[in-house]
Design brief:
The structure holds two protein chains of two kinds. By secondary structure, chain A is mostly helical. Chain A has seven helices and no strands. Chain A is globular, with a radius of gyration of 17 Å. Chain B is mainly alpha-helical. Chain B is 72% helix and 4% strand. In chain B, strand 3 and strand 4 form a beta hairpin. In chain B, helix 3 packs antiparallel against helix 4 (105-121), helix 3 runs antiparallel to helix 9 and helix 11 (253-275) runs parallel beside helix 19 (388-414). The chains are: A mainly alpha, B mainly alpha. The interface between A and B is large, with 37 and 38 residues.
Chain lengths: 193, 466
């Protein structure tokens, strides 16, 4: 039940990340997405370790959100409303259909991974890749990468439970967020000689 | 002391210290040079896992370090690899002041190299993908320093390198299953596809290489040269570790056919695009793509030629790209555009720069008497014995690269008037360029002296014998 709810949250938040034009909504959706990630990962990991996913995800979201303070929206590329959103929603629908076709086959292949985890993982992977394919804005690119990584981590948690890997993956997530903050503020930083 | 502490943790700690002192550029430069030179010498001179006696001092470098239940191992067989990595880093750092790179370059460059060495040391070796990703993230401020918005190339670089990590980690999990029961053909096929995609992203294999020429155009050429060649050196060694580790992988003839085809495809597409470029930075990007193609070709030809050619390619590639990036950095620093159409009489004022640039281009194109020639000639012969069309594709690609070098020469020679506004090179710049060109010619004339040493890189891969 909880796992199914987490899959629905994954779907809703990843679509919100794709269509949202306001960075506040985007960061909010990202935070909610990491709650779903926590639920799905905690099926195979001890809660104490699984909670690192939530903490790291929220820290990444907070860092990205702080870098956007004072900005009104992310509408910098082809944002003619509502056409852009409708297009993104249609693309998201296509990706969802593709995932629905893939998941039954993946169940036979990813035998150690539970069905909700496969759904959640594939939804985030698919929507993250879609996000990456539709943008050249650093904020959205980093959000897309974080989404892809979150999807991967759900699947990978079922097969790998090493503390070192968990730590390194957390470092990569935080590193990506920091790179995002850095890239978003390049013009405000002191130029190195 | 353990080897991972000496060659990974200590440089990483030093990088943090150098970052704190980044405004004292001379100090940072001197310390980094001493440190990397020491690490090179230590890798060359100190045995690992045996007692070392230095006068009254006696110590032993242990090969392993335990971190959070996982082991980092650097043993005696890895010494040549570590020495190569730190030797190359020493030279990149030594020339960095002449190339006028920004102050982030040395601290972040050292941290990146330390993480990449850790990637080669971590066990299970598949976790290397995570450490490589961290090295990539650290390299971002180097290739995209503050002052200008991030270009498309930087974003594509982050995207492709990050996407590689999940593929490789997941492959590792599948391969573990396949290792237990290698008769599972479907599993092996899936692992092969995932692994191929992971390395295609990491090595910027066709068609994922568009970001390399873009990055070489948009960022500081010297920094791009350092980041890409260092990263690709480690990724290639990481890729070979897969072959070394999995018997069923190296006994798969399909894998070698795919590597030969992919390498040839990269060379022919890179060569053709290179022939039409008119920007020296972008051209360098295509040269790097072609070099990656040759590296894949060398691995693909391993069943016929062994892995020696793969190891031998490292030196000519590093020196060639080093001289090229150095030359165009100086060119840029002296107010010259890197675009053929905007050259302003630099052939008269910057003779050493132009000369060494052309030599580096000819060397990477595989012209006789220069460093790459003996290896590439042997490779093309090996590929020709396997498949004539592929050998022809490689020759066409190399021809494209050669044509681009001739076009560069023509572009410089076309401008006849001398431009007094352009300052000639300093004697240090000349010395650095002559030093690089000397090695390109020396390896071409007497390849066995250096290239035989290069094969010691293969000590780390004990199973790779055909």
């Amino acid at each position: 039940m909880l796992n199914s709810l987490a899959v629905i949250i994954c779907a809703v938040t990843s679509i919100a990340l794709l269509v949202s034009m306001d960075w506040r909504w985007t960061v909010g959706a990202l935070a909610a997405m990491y709650v779903a990630v926590l639920i799905l990962v905690s099926a195979t990991w001890p809660l104490g370790m699984a909670i690192t996913k939530l903490v790291v995800g929220w820290m990444a979201g907070a860092a990205l959100g702080l870098s956007q303070m004072g900005q009104r929206s992310l509408a910098t590329e082809g944002s003619s409303w509502p056409a852009s959103r409708i297009f993104r929603l249609l693309a998201a629908g296509l990706v969802m259909l593709m995932i629905a076709a893939i998941v039954p086959k993946a169940e036979g292949f990813l035998v150690t991974v539970g069905t909700p985890q496969i759904w959640g993982g594939f939804i985030l992977l698919g929507m993250g890749l879609l996000q990456l394919g539709m943008t050249a804005h650093p904020f959205r690119v980093i959000i897309g990468l974080l989404t892809v990584l979150a999807g991967f981590e759900i699947l990978y948690a079922a097969v790998e439970i090493s503390v070192l890997v968990a730590g390194l993956l957390s470092a990569v997530n935080l590193g990506l967020a920091l790179v995002g903050v850095y890239l978003l503020n390049l013009t405000n930083l002191e130029e190195p000689s | 002391m353990s080897a991972p502490v000496l060659w990974f943790l200590a440089p990483l700690g030093l990088a943090v210290l150098l970052w704190l002192f980044q405004y004292r550029e001379r100090l940072v430069f001197a310390i980094s040079l001493l440190a990397t030179a020491f690490l090179t010498l230590a890798a060359w001179a100190f045995p690992i896992g045996e007692a070392v006696e230095l006068g009254p001092l006696s110590f032993e470098i242990a090969p392993t370090l335990n971190v959070l239940g996982r082991i980092f191992t650097l043993d005696g067989n890895d010494r040549a690899m570590i020495a190569l990595i730190y030797l190359a880093t020493t030279f990149w750092f030594a020339w960095s002041r002449l190339a006028k790179v920004h102050r982030y370059f040395i601290p972040l460059g050292l941290a990146m190299v330390a993480l990449l060495v850790a990637a080669l040391a971590v066990e299970p070796f598949l976790y290397a993908a995570l450490l490589i990703e961290m090295a990539v993230l650290i390299s971002i401020p180097m290739i995209s320093p503050p002052g200008a918005p991030a270009g498309n190339a930087t974003l594509r670089y982050v995207i492709f390198q990050t996407l590689a990590m999940p593929f490789i980690l997941f492959t590792g999990w599948i391969l573990t299953g396949a290792e237990a029961g290698p008769t599972e053909a479907g599993l092996i096929g899936k692992a092969g596809v995932l692994l191929g995609l992971g390395f295609a992203f990491l090595l910027a294999v066709f068609p994922f290489y568009t970001w390399i020429p873009l990055l070489a155009e948009q960022s500081h050429p010297y920094v791009v040269g350092f980041v890409i060649t260092t990263l690709q050196t480690i990724v290639l060694l990481f890729g070979v570790t897969f072959l070394d580790h999995y018997t069923w992988l190296r006994s798969s003839p399909e894998l070698f056919s795919v590597l030969l085809s992919t390498g040839s495809l990269m060379i022919i597409t890179g060569g053709i695009w290179a022939a039409f470029q008119s920007h020296l930075g972008r051209l360098m990007g295509y040269a790097i793509i072609i070099e990656t193609g040759f590296a894949l070709l060398a691995v693909g030809a391993a069943p016929q030629m062994g892995m020696d050619l793969f190891a031998m390619l490292f030196f000519p590639r590093l020196i060639g790209v080093g001289v090229w990036t150095m030359a165009i950095s100086i060119l840029k620093e002296h107010g010259q555009s890197l675009d053929f159409r905007q050259l302003r009489g630099s052939n008269k004022r910057l003779r050493f720069v132009v000369g060494s640039l052309i030599v580096a281009q000819f060397s990477l194109a595989g012209l006789p008497v220069l460093a790459s020639f003996p290896i590439k000639q042997a490779l093309v012969t090996a590929v020709g014995l396997e498949s004539l069309p592929l050998a022809l594709a490689v020759l066409i690609g190399s021809g494209g690269m050669l044509l681009s070098a001739v076009r560069t020469l023509a572009a410089f020679l076309q401008v006849r008037e001398e431009n007094p506004e352009i300052k000639p090179e300093t004697r240090y710049e000349r010395a650095a360029l002559v030093f690089g060109v000397f090695f390109l010619v020396f390896i071409g004339l007497a390849p066995q002296i250096i290239l035989d040493q290069a094969t010691s890189l293969l000590n780390a891969f004990s199973q790779l014998v055909w």
